[in-house]
Amino acid sequence: MALDSGSRLDPECHSGYKLPTFLILVLLEFSDHVSFVKEIAVTDPPEHLNSLLNVLHARGEKIVSPGAKRGLIPLVVPLSESPQGNLTSLLRWPTAPSGMEMPVVEVRSHGLWLLAKNVNQYIHRILVEADSRAESGDDLWSAVREDLWSAVGEAGPNIYKRGDLKESQTADLDVYLLKKVGLFPDILERKASRHLEKGDSVSALITSEFYTRDQFPGFGRPFVFNSEVQKRIGRTSEAKESARVALKSPWWTLGCRYEEAAELAGWEDEQIEFIREKVSEEGKQDDLKKGKAPEQVVLDEAAFLMDLATVDGNWDEVVDRIADCYREAGIHDIAKFIAYRE
């Protein structure tokens, strides 16, 4: 299923254009996505997933099939595509801790960028940002705000009290978002960068190190950014160490190309060669001889193949083997999800 609104609203690209209200007032039911998450991804669908899809549609994005995974990292559930070609998706961690909600991510050429820890948080941010732009006196954004509130439906008031940003008298939007909505990678990075621009390296370091303190479990991006900050203020050894910590995370969570993180770590191709050796038959046999459980060997292989695919850009060539690894480890639900693609 691919749903295209026909007359999409992108305030940045179509200034002055107003999406017909009747297209927004009819709330859409995206049952394909809910059932896909439940039956194929085999996890609980986010409570307000339909509301997010309606908001993304109202914002001018084309809703795409959840099974349109060809060429993508196989752990995502695609939601929508922006006029600029950015793909918003949900992330299905293979072994998510109990109670962890599905993060909202943007698919990029080198991997994934975390947009929000969960669906509610992302809806909340979108509504607050629309409020901010509308209150600035922008007539177009006043119309956009109305459309977004029509689209979000009954979930809206449960997530954000309309007008709360203005009532809070918080002058800085980023401050409000961090205090009232949640932590976001791009905002934390912007905060640290602003400190650097002002020559306040101490505050920049405090922010970047806070960013790394398990705020975004599983993601290597905070450590890459911390490495960049450390390098900018001349702390070379600390920069290398932080980058090396980042590279212990899945490479598709680095928020940059592998080569950029490896350069910060002071490495060349040795990590790539090491991993290629580990996924070879000889490398797997060595692990088994050392006493590693067969299930762990194939799970390691799956993780290594995803790291290499981030570098090589060949997801479709390795996805079946990745699925087989989970199948051999007895994790059949994840194997089915990874292998699924239209």
TrEMBL record:
It comes from the Eukaryota. PANTHER family: CYCLIN DELTA-3, PROTEIN IN CHLOROPLAST ATPASE BIOGENESIS, CHLOROPLASTIC. This is Cyclin delta-3. It comes from Aegilops tauschii subsp. strangulata.
